[in-house]
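Course assignment 3, question 2. Fill in each field.
Student: A.L.
Task: Predict the tertiary structure for the chain below.
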Amino acid sequence: METNIIVHNKMQEKMIELSFIQNKIYEIRGYKVMLDYDLAEMYEVETRRLNEQVKRNSKRFPSDFMFQLTNQEVTNLISQFATSSWGGTRKLPYAFTEHGITMLASVLKSEKAINTNIQIVRAFIALRQYALGYAELKQELENYMNKNDKKIGSICEILEELVSQKRELEKPRTPIGFVQKTIKNQTL
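Answer field:
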């Protein structure tokens, strides 16, 4: 029983970690990225130390692995949050793609960096799987809507036909048979 609780707690911790990491992943310039200060916090190093290691190994970080945000991108990112956690940084942050984060493992060689990288890669994989599942769900919904649109179209045609038949039945008819003409209270 106690081992079940321990396993359950560890699973909860992993889910929290995964959720925490996923909340730090942003989409910028069409890439899913994490920012240098978030990564530094997770690796438990100072942001400037992380960036120093990256600069020392700049050949490992091409532009599709890492890029520096523009002032406009920083402004857009800050505006997405109710309160700013920027804390007055003086330099524009760097954004690391999934591949750039993987490359960080070879630059930051601590045990913490290795374990953190594993969790981050798992978070990116989970996001990718979620996106694929969402795409499949969207396709199924579109197929369902297309199929039902045809049925709804048929129902609408039938309803229109019934309404036109009802209009025909409600038109005033010409009386059949002998009609007496009346002249001011007299019958002819």
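Instructor remarks: The helical segments are 2-22, 36-43, 47-56, 71-79, 98-107, 111-170. DSSP finds six helices and six strands in the chain.
Grade: pending
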